[in-house]
User: What shape does this take?
Amino acid sequence: MSLYKNISALKRLQGQLCNENPSLYSSLIGIYPTLDYPACVYELNTNAERYVTENVLPHAGSPLKSAVKRLISKLLGVNPAVGGLGLILYEE
Assistant: This one.
């Protein structure tokens, strides 16, 4: 539930910022394993996310847990194993 609230808040903020300043570009990022000691920071919905999901993030042991994680990932658009989410803004 917390992951859902965070991703929703970040998407709303992303929309507001881009509407206020059209020259801004923004991306959602995933952070693993924690915000305090990030070993991996990657942009969501890119090839980087697919690589991190397959090769870096921990995999569930049982097929049932794996299926639940995949379902949550599809619904929310982010793997539930991430340690944090963020928003990156840049202007060209």
Notes: Residues 2-91 form one domain.
